[in-house]
Batch of 3 targets.
Target 1
Amino acid sequence: MERSEKWDRLQDDCDLLVIGGGATGLGIALDAATRGLRTVLVEAGDFAQATSSRATKLVHGGVRYLANGQIHLVYEALRERRVMLRNAPHLVHPLGFVTPAYRWLDLPFYGTGLKIYDVLAGRSSLGTTHLLSAQKTADAVPGINLVGLKGSVQYFDGQFDDARFALALARTAEDHGAVVLNYVRCTRLVQKNSRTGGAILQDVETGRETEIAARVVINAGGIFLDSVRQMDDPRCKPLLKASRGTHIVVSGEVLGGSSALMIPKTRDGRLIFAIPWMGKCVIGTTDIPVDSVAMEPGHSQDEITFLMETISPFLARPITHADILSLFSGLRPLVTGHAASTAKLSREHHISASTGGLITIAGGKWTTYRRMAQDTLDFAARNGLLQMRHCKTETISLHGAPAAAVSDDPLMRYGTDAAAIQYLQQQHPEWSAPLHPRLPFTAAEVIFAAREEMARTVEDVLSRRMRALLLDAHAAVACSGRVAGLLAAELAKDDLWCKSQEQAFTQLATQFYAI
């Protein structure tokens, strides 16, 4: 469906209007559509542009939450992890993690804790936790520091591409009849008989506005949800406290294998991971309280130094600033509490309704997005705002899900849509070459992103449809001009648009450089 057709459909009344196109909002849209509800979702920017594309790329139960005693959260997340892997095998896969021990006592200590993780997983287990000798550890992670290494504990969790998983949710919701639009902003909530009964929506690209009526409005604004709550009640107190998590990206040769490192003890109390991802190594994350929210929260040199100093003792070759190909930061929308630090605030979700009926869903984590969506719609039904209908998403495959994933397929992240990319490359051989020698992405993928994946900007393509900006920021900038030209041809834009897009992307990319 063309964007203009989707906009025209906003003139119709709907059962449910979802504000926010991150993991939570998209999960709600899919759940609602599969329950037979007339559903509309709008996102002021691009899908998953903020927190939901800045994750550590893990689908996990949360080893840290186990240490904090949040057993029920870990139990739920481990089951949801299995659902994500089953419903999107092209985007989620098991990953082995090595926890190195440089003291003999660490082996039984780490092993016991991670065995409990296994027990909680039960039939949802992705692999059995076991001890590795120093040599077996080196086989799993060739880049590990062998000096004093006694062995390790290996356990298994899941890994995914967060931004593309969010896109799959959006497309699956559309497949089931939802209207899903990016770059559409809610500028005002509409009150009818003292109840929130719709919203004024503005197309960010054109400035045109429309009013939509909805039986129920759900605020899934993520880090921006308090601003939506204030539209409903200017006197409401903030619900969220945000913290910044920063990651650095280096060459995959730093680890040298297909297993990840998990470092359980750091000076700020967090776990640090070094994870192979799309041929690179992602290292993170930090936990820094922030006073305000922003789409691009930036980072500090202290965070970069902390990550390098924390991971380097475990590597055969310590990393330096020169090794960093890119870095990215995101804000966690944590529900306010009385913990001493944001690292200890709960990742459990919070659902509430205002006196006017606006439903807000806050907190949570990527792995439990589906359960958060189910709980939100069930909450609306229990409060008489919607008819109670059975949730179906536990067994609904996401858009593109193949019968079985092919791990060595370079287009595996597209699932069954890979055939469409290959067809474009066959029809236009000039679209089959990499956009840049250091990136695995082609022009055909840019065309597909514009035609089928709702990409509207160079950033949409290079940051989220492809993950070029996160993998190698300088290489992404180098090919941004060509991407702008390809997009312009698809979206009927002129040369001025191309230049402004290239300039905007180049400016954005400076925040991904390790200066």
Note: The chain has three domains: 3-51+164-239+345-395, 93-152+241-338, 412-512.
Target 2
Amino acid sequence: MFGIPNITSFEVVALWVILAIAFVALLYALLLRNQIMREDKGAKEMQSVWDGIRVGANTYLRKQLRSILPLIVVLAVVLFLSIYFIPPSSAALLRFKGMTDAEISLIVGIGRALAFVMGAVFSLLVGQLGMRMAVQGSVRVAAASKKGLNYALKLAYRDGTITGMLTNGLGLLGCMVIFMIFGIDSPDVLLGFGLGGTLLALFMRVGGGIYTKAADVGADLVGKVEVGVPEDDPRNAAVVADLVGDNVGDCAGMAADIFESYEVTIVAALILGVALYFTTHQIEWVIFPLLVRGIGVISSIIGTYLVGVGKEKNAMNSINRGFYVSAVISVIGFALVALFYMQEWRAFFSVSAGILLALAINEITKYFTDTRYRPVKDIASASKTGAATLILRGLVVGYEATVWQILAIAGAILAAVLIYWGQGFTFTLYGVAMTGIGMLTLTGNYLGMDSFGPISDNANGLGEMSNMDKESRQSLADLDAVGNTTKAITKGVAIGSAVIAAVALFGSFLTSIALVQQQMGVVSSDTILATGINIASPIIFVGLLIGGAIPWLFSALMINAVAKAAGLMVEEVRRQFKIPGLMEGKVKPDYEKPVAISTIAAQRELITLATFVILTPVVTGLVLGEGALGGFLVGAILSSQLLAVFMATSGGAWDNSKKTIEDGIYGGKGSESHKASVVGDTVGDPLKDTAGPALNPMIKVINMIALIIAPIIIRVSTSNPIAILVGIACVVAIVLAVMYSVRGGFRRTKAGEANF
């Protein structure tokens, strides 16, 4: 049954239960949505501001969808054709026994293309629906603050949990549907599902990140530093664009980011599980990751529903309590599955190592970005001597945090080595993949924490713009400060999970090449799994260097896009502050023009950056070979992790140091210390919310592309004329994309609109 040989009745029932759990997650999301939508939206003045945010966010997402649809169609066709360049895998021959190679290729090709579309659609749904509910929730959280901190906290967190449950439900649903249809051959098809989700995450991260920081930088530099108005002041023309950006960047972007990590880790685990099946003839290695996913959904539902402040009135402690409850339930569930199903403890230890890694990254990120700890306090203290010393302190914090996080990740990978000591390389890689599965077990909690940030940020902004009472404003400000920390924590987890997922995919890359080599007659002792990748080889070392450089160029292009758009935003906000009567509140600013500036800035970079990311591994593989492509992946993974953690941590620490000063220390708002902290926060904004987070989907797109093209490359000589022509065409496309991104700029039309 399900195309799986020797499957037991228990396993059949378990698979149906996991499928049912996917629908339970979606039903829980619907239940939470209905709870949120029944809440009051507050006064008319607040609803008027909120409606502008809602319209702006929806308009942006519609334009983004129109930009990326053509590329999705093209790539679906390419993925269908990719199956025809290689003979059917051993798993495909086993699943479709009795069919010809042509028939198998047709079925798997159609499956991979449809799975790609499904992954893209599901990722889009998670981002769009999650963001729309965040927008709906923010105005209700603002109104709920009149009922106290506890009520507003519960509402904001449950609203954010909707995104987490959509991720759990749709991610698990897609995997189970594919697994039930294709069985032992599901990894061939899941590659399409993973790439679809990953590519959409890249689009939403890139577009949302550029949008939000173009608005935020322009609003802060002019509003806070030059004019001296408060944050979210309704006289600031960029304030609505800024609040829209919180949603399209932090809600839609992060949701799609975590969703594709959720997909990619299961893809890697199943590929390696199938490889172990052909070695051990035990299907448990394939089914165990799916059981873990189901347990994680149930534990997240229980933990997220328990969030609410107790007697201590500490929102962060309440959120942490819900997270730890989910973690404990998950570990107990994993132990039961390991004891009664796997009948061995190695897989349990691997998954538990993932949860411990997530907890470690939580604590590391919290320490370096939370206002209660020394790093943020030191940065705030440095503001007394100006922006330069404050920025230097933030750089130190980012560098130091990067070291601790990479040591935590190294420890988790080392744990996989020790757990499967002496069992072989494939077992170790499987352990790494299960660490990634464990790390994302509590996806519902992570996305609840992440979406809580922009929801509380928007609610705080709405409270300020509608002149709510002082007590309600303080509750919203407290939630906003906690939201900054939860966003930083989930960014850390997203980066860590991206690295673990990329390492697992790298293992799948090696396994895939080895299987193809064996099909071509290479003996096991000479396959890439046995020989490894020799970085002493000059060609492979060149691939390593190129891969290490890619994240830096990618980040440069993104920050450059923000800088150009922010420059235009500054000009626009300055122009509007000079409008007679604006400062006195007699005239309202034109909020639509800053929204248009951010929208154009985000849209123009989508296809160029996607082209750059997709084609670089193709060129490396075609020109330098599969060994150099492996080196390329190693360089990209390491460089991305170091750079992403540094940017996310420094930016988060600068942001929260500004918050501490705004709470009254060192002169409070309007002081020289405050102005210095605003400069630091402005520098950190594109690092923590644009370039840093976008590296997560970037490294997974690169790994997924490499995994798909590796079986083709190994059969194509680097001296093949067609390969050379394709390589040259890809190089030209990459150069043109980079030149367009670097040199392209904005200009004003005669009507004063932003254009390019």
Note: Residues 9-755 form one domain.
Target 3
Amino acid sequence: MVKAQQAGSTQDKTDGPPTLTALADLARLVARSGAPHLKLRLIFAILLTLAGKGLGVMAPLVLGAAVNRLAAGQGAAAAVGLGFAAFAIGWTFVRFLSAASPLISDVVFAPVRAAAQRTTAAEAFAHALSLSLDFHQTKRSGALSRTMDRGSRAVDFLLRILAFNLIPTGVELVLAAGVLGAKYDWRFAAGAGVVVVIYTAATFAMSNWRLEHRRIMNAADSEAAGVSVDALLNYETVKSFGAETRAAATYDRALGDYAEASLKANSSLAMLNGMQALVMNLGLGVMAVMAGFEAAAGRMGPGDVTAAVLIMISLYAPLNILGFAYREIRQSFIDMEEMLKVTRQTPQVADASNALALPRPVDARGASVRFENVGFRHDARANGLEDVSFFAAPGTTTALVGPSGAGKSTIVKLALRLLDPQEGRVLIDGHDARQVTQASLRAAVALVPQDVALFNDTLGANIAFARPDADEAQVWAAAEAAELADFIRGLPDGMETKVGERGLKLSGGERQRVGIARALLADPCILILDEATSALDSRTEAAIQKTLQKARHGRTTLVVAHRLSTVADADQILVLKAGRIVERGGHHELVARQGGEYAALWRKQTRAGKTSQVAD
């Protein structure tokens, strides 16, 4: 499903009716689900289901024959009793087979449903991860997770209900009407057909009316999930501002909206069920009266009346399933539709069809980075990067400085190819970043962000995330290089210590050191440090700076910094302002420029530092 939809854009409209499109998606999904013995399971399960429906129609005829034999009452009582008992046992056996066949069918087909649901969930999850930064910046994690969960469960339901309830129910309706017309009277079949048409039309009409209630209820459910996950992920922020009551009240309002939508959906469901019960029982009453008149006229025996009534009941019982199936199928299509909207999203940053792996430099010199007339503008910002050009030679350090919002982080994202330039191009070691695979580019570039986010796993797993194949000695070496090893040895569980949700059990400085260790373990050609020591104390920062100086050897380094003292030794410093490079050069050169942006920032920071020392 994901692969089939990747060619479309977010605005693409699917061809054909939505239901047929969804059915086609469902069929393709089953075909590639990888279920064992898929064709055999599918054929055997359908045959078992159809056999069960056929036996269900035959069972009343067997019981009718038993009652007729008993009513005839001719011959020895023992013979009559034995004949009735034989038919009754046969009726019981046929009913058992009728009930057992769908159960066996469900067992046979269950691995296919499970494989299809797993494939759906895995593909939707993988596709969501492949989507670009802009998509995830506008989505709520909780709502997205709930959408994918509902969509995968809808696939399982649709497979079960379509293949083994809806289609077999149609077959059973045709068989039952045929038996009534052939064995008794055409008016029975005609009456049954009229009731089926009325019941089906009314059910479809009311179910369509209920769809909007379901959509509103799903939207309210996703909103409530998004609110709760947002608050739980930002637990520290909520606590630090004493906003627990406010966050709980927001969640309560979201739940209130969901409860209101749910009540409307349930009320409309009750109305639908009431209508179905009315039509069904009126039809059954009419059929029972017709059978009674036929028996009074001598054209039907008592057993035939019994069989006709039982066939009516078995005929209308599938109508209950039909109503339920139609409602749930339409509702599942809504859930599946929401998931398909995610899988139809096309990443703004994607590998070109002819993309090649970025070759790693043969010598330990690092890789060059070149920006050529790069322009990029965010939708939510008035300003963006304009005509940014620079060259970072292999093995050199380039610092990006300037006020907040100047475009430093955008340059970092462009170098990582989390964004693609709208103008110009970014070259990594002479290769256009858009012409190499993202996997090979990200393997060559490692980022230590200002706010390091960790998985709710062990310290060892978080450090090794950059290289899952790294052995324990390599992980410890990276921790040593990041000045983290002594801290880990002092923990009761060492490397097996759990860091908590997003690493919140660690301090900001400890999280940053884990991020540095992770980047060093990746052994990149290009190292990007985005305020990598901003959360560290002065003593630890000095130690880390020495470590990073060693780590820069043989690597090209991009450093984003607010504290200019940390980049004074950079080979070149780029000063950004309002998305443009306004100055470039070495530290001493820039400080010496009278009236320059860098010199003004340097004076401001050194003056603030002296004031701080006097205050201390």
Note: Residues 369-452+525-615 form a domain with the Rossmann fold fold (CATH 3.40.50.300).
